[in-house]
Amino acid sequence: MLLFFASWGIWWSFFQIWLTSESNGLGLSGAQVGTVYSVNSLVTLFLMFGYGALQDRLGLRKHLAVVIAAVTALTGPFCMWVYQPLLQSHFMMGVIAGAVVFSVGFLAGVGLFEALTERYSRRFNFEYGQARMWGSFGYAVVALAAGFLFTINPMLNFWIGSVLGVIHLLLLLLWRFEAKPVAPLPSNGKLSPASTPGFREMLGLFRLPSLWLIIVFVMLSWTFYTVFDQQMFPDFYTGLFEDQETGQQVYGILNSVQVFVEAAMLGLVPLLMRRVGVRSALLIGVAIMFVRILGCALVDDPLLVSAIKMLHAIETPLFILPVFRYFTLHFNPALSATLYMVGFQVSSQIGNVLLSTPLGMLHDQVGYRQTFITISLVVLLAGVYGFFALKKDDQQVMGDPFIRHSKTAVDA
């Protein structure tokens, strides 16, 4: 997790700035940036369902993880000699080429690594949030240097991402299981036939009304928030400073501090979730989303916006970890990878496909603040919807039961 997120974060944290910057980047418009993100999400959408279905069939085997790591190792050469020249000369060809490479290696790959790690956590009896914390730690470490590297030469970020990708690939190829699984597992690493889902069973997920309820919830909340945070906030933040170079360096430092705090929160949120429950933790995460987006629309002081940016460190764990637990609580855990890909990652990518370009055009017309207000109102609507639509922790329990600490104490 650490190496994957480090190889991604070193360049992804400044990707939007690289696309829009006139001095250190490509100088694309908001609509063009929206097109890049929209096509990225479209390709990611198709890959995610395939990744989830294949990994559910593979069980604990890491064949797909090795393929993804191999692609991440090619980031530097691809961006320098293929992606940038195509975006400048044949824009749509560049967009499509980048969408394929970035989706295979990172945008769909992240969901695969998270789902695989969550499966390891249940099989080897460790806390997923603490494992995911190392991913945030890796992202934070490289984000600290990313801003300074970017002001020197943006291509340095992509090439360092390749070096980290090579290390990650070697680690996966050389790594072997040492700990014995808590639950019995065949020597080939595959799940037993009784627990391995079939393709028909996977397709049957789409007939579940309860799955569609959370898909709508994710699209109205996480999708809009992702467009705000990835497609708009970096350029908005650096624009608050007198010169772009200073803004880019400060953004790199702020991003690193935020991800360090996020890493710590990934270890603490499971404890909070055991106190308040899965559903309540998820709704708290949405409430923090709303506060952060609206706050950025209402203030223009770099210090205040920086403080508001730190809410991301709390919101992300309070959304991602409860979503994972919601799926394993209310659905068949054997389908966890597919459920996470379809119910969370795929649904958010569908939203990105539909929303990235229109919201980019809205920004071109009315500016960041009015766009942020619009997004915050949609997220508020998502919170109200989720309050009524999401299942309580003791309703429709079809997976691993969840027992709050307070409830255990009362029963005792």
UniProtKB/TrEMBL annotation:
It comes from the Bacteria. InterPro entries: LacY/RafB_perm_fam (IPR000576), MFS_dom (IPR020846), MFS_trans_sf (IPR036259). It is a multi-pass membrane protein. Residues 1-394 form the Major facilitator superfamily (MFS) profile domain. Keywords: Cell inner membrane, Cell membrane, Membrane, Transmembrane, Transmembrane helix, Transport. The chain crosses the membrane at residues 35-54, 66-84, 90-113, 134-152, 158-175, 210-228, 248-269, 281-300, 371-390. The keyword Mitochondrion does not apply. It is found in: Cell inner membrane. This is Galactoside permease. It comes from Glutamicibacter ardleyensis.
